[in-house]
Structures are given as C-alpha cells and as structure tokens.
Design goal:
heterotetramer; A: about 190 residues; alpha+beta; six-stranded antiparallel beta sheet; B: about 150 residues; three-stranded antiparallel beta sheet; two-stranded parallel ribbon; 4 helices; 7 strands; about 40% helix; elongated; binds adenosine-5'-triphosphate; binds magnesium ion
C-alpha cells in the first residue's frame, strides 16, 4: 500500500479544499507559520483512519473537527477527508468492500483486486453537524471495520506508532514497561 | 503467540541497537525483557547509553536525547514491520543541528520502504525532502495548501 | 483575601491583554472568572484569539499558539509581581521565526526589571542576550561552562 | 534581590565546578548541544531553592542529583549548589540567618541588613550519599524555612511559575480552571 493523495474539505481550518499529492517514495515536508494548519493535516489522516476520540484530535467533541467559521466565513455543515492509496503488489483481494446504505460517493472505484496491476483505493470519512458519520471505500458507504480491514497487518491505524503527534515523540519511551511490550506486540 | 513475540523482540532489539548508533553517532542502545523467568508477559525496559556516557535509565536523559532514543525505537519498529506511511509532527524541535542532520539523513534512507510525511520548522529537514508543501493562512483562519517544490 | 485576589486578577488580566497583543502582533487575549456569582472561589478561564481568528477554547490552539499564549500569561504575572529572576528552558522550540523574534524582543524589554536566564538552540534568541554561556562536554559525561560573550 | 552567580559541584553532570556569573540586568543565554548539561543548570537552581521532589529533577531518588560517574571518573560523594544574590534596596533586615549545627561554610557573609548599601546573600545546599542534606546561608547551616523566608514575597521558589522546565511551557494553560486560580493567588 502506498499513500498517493490527501484531500480535506470542511475539516478544521480547511474550509476551502486542501489537496496534497504524495510521491510514491521519499519524504514530503509540510511547513508554515504557527497556527496555519500543519497539525490539522496529521489530524485529518488519523481521523480518516477511524479515530474515535475527539480529545486526541485536540477537540472536546467530534463536531469540533467541522470548520467552525471565521470572522468572514460561516461555519460549515460537514467535514470530509479523502485519502487515495495505491496497492502496489496484488495482495489478497479486498473483495469489493461492500457497503451498507445508499451513499452517493464518486463511485468509479478501481481495478478489482485480482492482480491486474496496481489499483487505487479511495477511503473517505464524512461527519455532518447532525452527528451523522459515514465511511466510504471507493465511493460506497461501508463500516469502520471495512476500513480497518484494508490496513490490517500493516500496523497502520489512528493510534499506531506510525503517527507521532506534535510534542509526543518522548511518549514512545516514557510509557510503563508493559506499554512498551504492547508496542512490540503491535508490531509482531 | 509468545514465540511470535520473542521473535519480534529479538529482531526489533537488533534494529534498535543499529538505529541508536546511527542516530547518536555512537553509543549503545538496547531493549531488555524485565524478569523474563518470573513473568512470561514481562514488560520491556529501554537502556540508552549516549556516546561516552555510562549506561543509564531513560529518565535521566536530556530532552534531545530522549527524542532521539524514541526515534531510534520507531525506526527499529519500522524496520521489522514497515508501515505504508509515517507522519512525524515536529519531532526535530528538541534536536540540535548535528542531531537534526543525522535524523534527516535517517528518514531519507528509510523512505525507500516507508513514505514519510514530516511537519517541521527546521530548514535542514526541509532540504532533505523530495516534495515540499507550504500551508498558509492568507485569509485569516483559512488554511491553504501551496506546493513549493515537487520533484 | 478575596479583595486581594480580585485586585490581582484585574491587574493580571489587563497585563495579559497587553502582552498577548505584543506577542501575537494583534488579536485579543483575556482572563475570565467562571461563574463568579455562584462560587466565590471560581476558577479562571483563558480566552485566546490569535489575529484574524474567532475567539476559541485554548485547547484548539496550535502548539506554537499555545506556547505563545502561555508566555503572554507568564509576562502578565511578572508585570504584576516581578520575581527576582526567571528561567526559561527552550520555550522557543515550538515557535516559528516571526514569533521567536517577538518573544526575544519581549524578554529583552522585560529584563530591565527581571533577570532572565534563557536556555535555547535558536540563534535569534541568542543574539538578543547580553551574556552568553556555552555548556560543553569535551570530556564525555562531564559538563563544562564556557563564557562565550559577556557584555 | 538580584541573582549574581551560580556555582555547582558534584551536581549531576557537573563533576568539575560549574560557575556562571549573571549580569545585574539583561538576558543570559545558555546554549550547547543535546545532553551537554543545560537543563541541569535549571535543575540546580530549583534544587538550591529547596526542591523536595526527585521526580521533578528528573530522577528517581534524590541521590540521583549527585554526580554518578562516567567511564573514566568515579562517582562523587556529595552534590553542592551555591547561588549568590545581591539585595539591592535595603528591604527588611533578614536578621543574621541563625543556623543550627556547626557547618563550616565560607563564612564571610555580607554587610548586615541595616541598609548600608547592597549586601550579598550566599545560599547553599549540599547532599551527601549518606542522605544527609544541609542548607546554608552565608556559610552558616540553616533550615529550609530560612531559605524560603529570603524569597518570601518574591514569588520565587522551586515550583514557582518563574522556572519553566523544558517542554512544559504549555502547562501554564492546560491546568484546570482552579489551578489557574491558584496561579493568580500565588502572585497576589
Ligand atoms: N473546527 C475548526 N474550525 C476552524 N478552525 C479550526 C478548527 N479546529 C482548529 N482550527 C484552527 O486551526 C489552528 C491550528 O492549526 P494547527 O494546530 O494545525 O497549526 P500548526 O500549523 O500545526 O501550528 P504550529 O506550528 O504552531 O504547531 C488553530 O488556530 C485553530 O483556530
Ligand atoms: N547524577 C548524574 N551524574 C552524572 N550525569 C548525570 C547525572 N544526572 C544527569 N546526568 C547527565 O546529564 C545529561 C542531561 O543533561 P541535560 O538534561 O542538562 O541536557 P541538555 O543540555 O538540557 O540537553 P537538551 O538540549 O537535549 O535538552 C544526561 O545525559 C545525563 O547523563
Ligand atoms: Mg502543529
Ligand atoms: Mg534540556
């Protein structure tokens, strides 16, 4: 699996669409002044991977991730984050990620998983002010479990060691001996 | 499951020893199982010895030494189980120039197997990136992504 | 004692509003007593509004904005009750260049009434200091103080 | 009160004597590579002001502040920190800081507190591996309370807001509303 693209709209300070293309290999640096929205990008990725705790997204309630307005813009009614991944080697087929419900996603999906070369997987999460939250794979609504399944075995998830939040790098060390054991177990 | 843990532990420990030396430019890092005989689910202890110093408890390390030791552990975990991508949010803030250089070089060499997204204020770290995005707030409160360089 | 608190609160609140504006280059900061009518020992809430942004809870601020808001509060406390000296250990680490400049200038102007000892890796902060000491470990594990510049 | 000098010997990584002169006004910057001993200077000041918790000095037990040896040096048996202060305006007289016990400090003390110009106050703390701990003012052993009295009314102490440890600047904000009230009360 390789990350290709991150798109955010209505998510925190991204009232206008934010769009970041990621190279297949290499390092992508994100820079900018204090408070401009860099850590919001990292929050967006943790969120689309299924983060359930508003507190670890630096908010009080999950609704805090929806654009809250500025002096000159009204608050928005929905937050959406989309990440596009490419499955490089034809692993096990994901099946067709059957959704439930009748979401009207962008629907084009990708080449099916039977090994005909790299295929794109589009993972999306939406939250409405009403509290309704939808997950989508390739445009079709699905459960959170379906998204977690895509990343199963890769060690990736909202709270995995692969996402180091600002100011928290020392936490890998400071946890109790048993927490450190869990870290190794996670990787095993 | 115990056997799997043991195998992972050995491999990650080896990886930690290597990445510790390349990040600190010397010294010795090691993972130890506490009380293995007594408790099969024993916790893990981290031993860090920056170059020229005595072996000591990770609590006594300085801010920068702690960050570097944590990064060495992270790298060892990735070597054992490469995750598709990794996000590092200003992990280089406590590091001095020499350690930022070693960190940036390490991340670049790891980026063959894992994609790294690095949020940073440090010019040295920016220089080693293959793609650079700026986030601005020309309109107050509204973030905008600007692609600065894309190789 | 309540009267004394009230008087201190008013003065520190005023100081916070001023230091917030000079550290952020604008915006508005304020201290509020929660539920004053209901509870004479009410807690204090901190409201921070970086320039151009809406009033919000300090939790939603970015890492750099939080550090700057905390420093504004510290300066307000010092203005009300100058302490003989103050030690700041790498408080400028999360700040971008523009904010480091404003912070360094603020500390310099405060240093007429309070002595500041600032531990830093930032060249901008070093430049505003009137005395500069280096700590080295030529012999591994042994700290040595070297006076770099003493005006 | 103005801080004039900090001397450390046997304290953490200062096996050789460390000596820092502080200008009457202005900013003193302390710089150096990671792990060289900068934060140990800040710990030394918190310690001589009476810090009782080993944990907030980043150790497990108070003995951890005594130089622990390196590959080529043996551990030392004692840690000592001395700070020299000048009392600029002739505040209330401190009395003569009557000590208890027979410590053999540097004894010259300073001009007495009756206003004949600035006087120096020398505050010292020593800890032996045996666990014995001594406080001294102007070379004469005293109680911790005597040291706290010098700084009474100035807001200074080991845990005062005047000492911001590494990585903890955000803590001034993040405490609960009642903690913030205490901060204001401390200053009142
Ligand atoms: N729901 C929301 N609606 C609008 N703006 C939001 C929302 N949530 C957070 N923000 C804004 O996002 C900003 C913080 O962004 P972020 O933490 O990403 O900054 P940063 O670029 O990481 O800065 P630093 O370099 O200081 O860490 C805050 O100023 C806050 O106002
Ligand atoms: N009792 C002790 N005896 C000997 N050395 C000690 C003792 N306690 C701490 N140290 C050493 O002091 C070093 C840490 O110093 P300190 O935290 O002051 O570094 P620093 O200059 O602040 O670095 P950074 O820039 O990374 O924050 C550790 O490497 C540790 O080995
Ligand atoms: Mg940030
Ligand atoms: Mg330090």
């Amino acid at each position: 699996l390789k990350l290709r693209r991150i798109e955010m709209i209505g998510f925190k300070s991204f009232s206008d669409k934010g769009d970041i293309l990621i190279n297949e290999n290499g390092v992508t640096a994100i820079v900018g002044p204090n408070g401009c929205g860099k850590s919001n990008v990292s929050d967006a990725i943790a969120w689309v991977l299924g983060e359930q705790s508003a507190k670890s997204l630096r908010g009080e309630k999950m609704e805090d991730v929806i654009f809250n307005g500025t002096r000159s813009r009204a608050p928005m009614g929905m937050a959406q984050v989309t990440i596009t991944l490419t499955e490089t080697e034809p692993e096990h087929s994901n099946g067709n990620g059957n959704g439930n419900g009748n979401g009207n996603g962008n629907g084009n999906g990708a080449a099916n998983g039977n090994g005909h070369g790299p295929r794109d997987i589009v993972v999306q999460r939406r939250l409405y002010r009403s509290g309704e939250s939808i997950y989508l794979i390739d445009g079709r609504p699905c459960r959170l479990r379906d998204i977690q399944e895509i990343f199963l075995g890769t060690g990736l998830g909202p709270n995995s060691y692969a996402i180091i939040e600002q100011g928290r790098v020392g936490q890998l060390l400071s946890s109790k001996p048993h927490d450190r054991r869990t870290l190794i177990e996670e990787a095993a | 499951c115990r056997r799997q843990f043991k195998e992972a532990f050995e491999a990650i420990n080896l990886g930690f020893q290597e990445s510790f030396v390349s990040l600190f430019g010397g010294g010795h890092g090691e993972l130890r199982l506490l009380d293995e005989a007594a408790d099969p689910d024993a916790g893990v202890e981290i031993v860090a010895q920056p170059p020229g110093k005595k072996l000591q408890n990770v609590l006594l390390l300085s801010g920068g030494e702690k960050a570097l030791t944590a990064l060495a552990l992270l790298i060892a975990l990735f070597r054992y189980k490469p995750s598709p991508f990794c996000i590092l949010d200003e992990v280089d803030a406590p590091l001095d120039d020499a350690n930022v250089d070693r960190f940036a070089n390490m991340v670049r060499s790891m980026s063959q197997s894992t994609q790294f997204i690095v949020i940073t204020h440090s010019k040295r770290t920016m220089e080693t990136a293959s793609a650079l995005y700026g986030v601005t707030m020309e309109e107050p409160g509204i973030s905008k992504i600007v692609s600065v360089r894309l190789n």
